[in-house]
User: Fold this.
Amino acid sequence: MRGLLQLFAAYGGGLLFVLLETISITLIVQYNQRQGEIASNSLGLVTAYFDNTSDWLTDYLGLKNEVIKLQAKNIKLMEQLDNARYSNAVFRDSIKQDSLKQMYTFLSANVISNSILSNNNSLRLDRGSRQGVHPNMGVISDGGIVGIVRNTTEHFSQVMSVLHSQARINASIRNSNYFGTLTWDGKDSRFMQLNAIPRHAQFEVGDIIETNGFSQIFPSGITIGVITQIEEIPGNNFFKIQVKLVNDLAKVRYVYVVTNLLRYEHDELDQTADD
Assistant:
């Protein structure tokens, strides 16, 4: 009882004020039609706001779970593709010995920051060394290639976007043996330029540009874009080719980090060659 009296002594004035205000507002709303309509409308707006917020949160959380499930399914499918495996097939005494070994695996990640407006654009992912992400790993999305991992911390990684002045992507013309290097001129984020395709090569506008796997960063056969313009430069033995990207990097949100399980063997060979 003493504690209750102390509580009233300390906060009684405030509580009494709130009580009287509540009674006054109730009387005004109850006995004045105009104020009653305003109060009813305001209460409806507040209720609708909280209902919409609740619905949005429910939908968002549900959508996020669906995205995670979809990413897991996509990873399983991508790892079953031929370009994600290494074939040990050989012919000996006219008998084919065939076996497949997993070469590429994929880790889902979320883009938490992105830029497309500078000459050296980058992305940041919510995956880092703790999840097995390391520099020089490729990053792709459902729409195509995104970039290459440059730096990592324990929980995050920085990705050099293909829209970067230093980006060099090995690419080929589909259904052709001709290959070159994709670069970005820093102008339009929708287009890249394919270089080093010789003047005698046969191809046309509308042909598809894809990864060729030469860099060991991306699996072969990933669609990058479509040729939209072919220009012959006087005195140059190579075409200037404009490629429209199929991946809209301004909207990319969910990606996959690519791990080449056999990359260490290529590094060993490169080291031996350097020595």
